Amino acid sequence: MSRRVPAPTAAAVGAMLWMIVATGTVATAGAEDAGARRPRRADHGALVVLDVYGTYEEMGRQQAALLGDEAGAVRDLYADRWRGLVRAQGAVGRFVDAVVFPIWSGLGGWREDSGFFAEAAGIARALDVGGATDGMRLLYGGVFGGGSTVFAATRSATVDGRALIGRNVDWSDDGGRRRPVVTRYHPANGDLPHLTASWPLVIVPIVGVNAAGLAISINFFDADVMMGLGFPRFLYRRVLQRAHTVEEALALLADGGNRGGAGMLVLADADGTLALAECTAMRCAVLRPSADWLAHSNHARTPEMRPHDEGRTADSDRRLAAMEAAVRERLGRIDPGAAAAILRDRANTAFINDAAVANLRVLNAVVVDPRARLFWHGTTQQPLAPFGALVPLAVDDEAPVAAAPIAADPQLGGPALTREREVVAAMRQAIRVFEGGRAGDAGAIWDRLAGMPATGLEPHRLAWARARVRWSTGRLTEADTLLAAADADGAPFEVRAYARVARGLVADRRGARADALRWYRAADAYLAAHPWYDAPFLVEPLRRAIRTGLAAPAIAMPAMPDLQNIPR
């Protein structure tokens, strides 16, 4: 058992307090409802829990109404993100936006049976932004660009042989606008009641469990086929609505045609069966674990899907290794409390802005028990989401929840994590200020952090941030010195790769063409030595800069990412 699991006395007291609070909450809700089952919302710290009823169109409307101003805040955010994705994809993006989505929402219902278009339309109409097409745009604007780290354990790996899933959803909360949301669906059409964890207006089950005891956890998959052009069937939703077992879920996922998106699905059921399905928009491959547990991050594990993977990063590799080590340490002793301790693990690194299981980008921290038809969800806001208390939530909202909450990590509220929260707030401010055109002010924040003792910041990433400020303000010699510190043994892969390209660009700006050519070639060799890290969003800008720099001296510094590994 991890040192972070609280003492029995503290856990018992916490459970007693929870039962007192829960009993009072249930009595109040019953008095207000007077026996009726009406849509409702409950807040548990940062977590929002929604109960919705009826048709999927009605449940979409109810979500938007219950979320209120929070729905309006993310509506604008997601719409902006979708427009950015359309621009980035050029003609293909414009075709999808103007032709594919309207056709899908208008005619796709003959194939799509998960209620997706109806629920999207209900959300859009409640927000007064249009119909199903606009609801789809909001969804796709809200789900691109994240990652996750997950494990599933069963039989010999757990205390009593039941399956458990532990999942950290790594996504930015966008400055607090994107709160974690659990939605309990009560469909009127015969579909299974189910719980899903995601964030406002996102109607795919990022994590979920249904009344039959099937649990699902979907990781982001940056595949070569992210969206198919045929009429979609959103099977990632359908498995929770219809499947009772992992085998039934896999049979559904094997259905041909367009799935509406790519995803990596960890599946577990009440009988203790586990599987991993890796899917592009058009096809899936299945991994059956050879042991009684598996871990997963954001790169393909099946031989069939590796050629389709366009998003493997050093961060994904390190998170997977960290999760595997955390699980392996507790094999045979994993229960919900131990699962929460795994989600809080940072044993692989000394730095807060480094790849870890409990990294700063965790938005949803979830433990799922398929046999009990419940999960525990974190109640603490990013960037310390895994360390807060986790409340139990059951698919059956009418029966008492026969589980205690999982207590917060004893460190939460203590000096170390309080300081960490303050450091992250300063980093986010520095990035916002820099992107707002005030590089000098951003530099002052980064320099102050560099001068503080025990910030826990990865030194190469910090050197990179300070170097960006220097070249942006014309201080090229200082920039080169800081880039040399970033380009050192032990630096994260992407930091070292970007630092070498930037050294070439700075050398060109200083008129040192021979040095520039040397650094461009060194960067090219470094990428060639790590061909498995080929995520286009990280690597392609570097390759373009290298080609351009080798052809002619650089006359300007292109925009480069912050590389800080923190939520934006």
| Structural class by helix and strand composition | alpha+beta
Q: What gross morphology would you assign?
A: globular
Q: Helix amount, in percent?
A: 40-55%
The CATH topology of the largest domain? Penicillin V Acylase, Chain A
Low-confidence stretches: 1-35
Radius of gyration over C-alpha positions, nearest whole angstrom: 24 Å
In quaternary terms, these chains amount to: single chain
Strand residues, percent: 15-25%
Strand order of the largest sheet: 1-2-5-6-7-8-9-10-11
CATH architecture label name of the largest domain: 4-Layer Sandwich
Distance between the termini: 33 Å
The domain count comes to 2
How would you summarize this macromolecular structure in one to three sentences?
The protein is of the alpha+beta class and 568 residues long. It contains 16 helices and 15 strands.
Could you characterize what this model shows?
Mean pLDDT is 90; it is low at 1-35. This protein is an alpha+beta fold and 568 residues long. It has 16 helices and 15 strands. The strands form two sheets. Strands 1-2-5-6-7-8-9-10-11 form a nine-stranded mixed sheet, with helices on one face. Strands 12-3-4-13-14-15 form a six-stranded antiparallel sheet, with helices on one face. A hairpin with a 2-residue loop joins β1 (40-44) and β2. The chain has two domains: 8-412, Penicillin V Acylase, Chain A (4-Layer Sandwich); 417-551, Alpha Horseshoe (Serine Threonine Protein Phosphatase 5, Tetratricopeptide repeat). Helices cover 43% and strands 16% of the residues. The relative contact order is 0.10.
